[in-house]
Amino acid sequence: MRVGFIGFGEVAYSLSKKLLQNNVDVVSSTKGRSEKTKQLAIDSGVKIVNSYEKVAKLSDILISSTSPKTALAIAKNYGILSNGIFIDLNNISPKTTKKIATFFGGNTSSADFVDGAIIGKVSSNNSTILVSGENSDKIAILNSYGLNVKIISEKIGDASSIKMLRSIYTKGITAIIHETFQAAEHLDLSNELFETIAITESEDFIYKSKSRINSLATSKSRKSEEMDEVLDFLKSIYDEDGLEFNSIMSEAVKNKFKSLKKFDF
Amino acid sequence: MRVGFIGFGEVAYSLSKKLLQNNVDVVSSTKGRSEKTKQLAIDSGVKIVNSYEKVAKLSDILISSTSPKTALAIAKNYGILSNGIFIDLNNISPKTTKKIATFFGGNTSSADFVDGAIIGKVSSNNSTILVSGENSDKIAILNSYGLNVKIISEKIGDASSIKMLRSIYTKGITAIIHETFQAAEHLDLSNELFETIAITESEDFIYKSKSRINSLATSKSRKSEEMDEVLDFLKSIYDEDGLEFNSIMSEAVKNKFKSLKKFDF
Hints:
N-(1-d-carboxylethyl)-l-norvaline Dehydrogenase, domain 2, about 15% strand
């Protein structure tokens, strides 16, 4: 079995490391990429070929791990050339995922498509690849080769929907924690508050919360934009059924991130 | 040493049980109380006297555990009669706590006052009594008699401020979880979402979240009103310094609870 990557950033590096340790052939190309990406690919020890077409045709499992912006083009140009199955691991919306699915099947491509989403830090041991779609089992065999793959359903869009829903939760927690501790800091009680909440929360509450607050310094604009996507998504899934969703919290999270000026604690 | 309780609900019952097991004399009165309260006091095994004045005068540590509404009157009428120290464990605001503090010291009372707040379910083993004020150490000796007491600072108001700040966090999490899982339920993906978030959160995430969602069915009005108090509190601590606080999340939590209609998942 051979696994190919299009795009060689942190995702491809971390996954290929685990696959190589489990004696899987891994192939990629660095054509037109930055020196940094080239070096990462060389360091990883994967086989490097001189075109993305070759990567696709050589791969039983072809993984797209570039960026949300290029995901659609990668799927259209190379995904359909896969020798077996194509999976998208970019952080794309369920809508884009469903659009990609239309490139497969029929006369367009002999390859199959699976919806994929990475949960957790890809370099960590407990990170999991959620998959959905009728051919999910063809990705789930990677469980025998060092990866954690979990099948969500047979429906394309479900894996990326879970990722989107999870992001309401994680960003919401970050926004709540930021507001709570900013007020605590004003009263000079933030350490006491961290310790008090930790009594009834998990042991790593303090570490995790501080890292959530700190991450905002560089990610508030991106997170605010991602909340726009979340709100579009929520609207669309309820519009379909002629319903309206009470998205008070998600809207507040977007506005909170948008309005943050400085991070002085 | 003798500990007295004014008000004999769950707090007094749980704390006196631990104190009695550690050979502390515990005294209370059930004058004018409901049959249910009388039975609870009898079951607990505490000594019952026929007036609240007596409870106060007999107690080295006098604990008020009635209700936020009556806290001020209890402190004024009986708290000041304590033989040693008076602590309020009702869920009152830092403002009310500071008001109570004015009844003590000087010619009014020979007793001392300590700000107190219970964190966690009082019947559980990890519940903690936060205390603040100059005489906190006189409550902290209860650590030798089966209770968990933690000194926050020498400032009256700090323990109840921590409780108030913690409530921004806990209610915020509840509101976020409710919104996230309502959307997931709409897509028939709530179990999958619970399991996915549990990968990176603590093990009891699923149990805790379901219990948070379920609790809203009976507590949304009360929680919305409590958020009004939180917002007053936030406003007041910033007003003092001529500043304005970005309370987008807390306002959203209040509005979320207020707008909830039904709980169909």
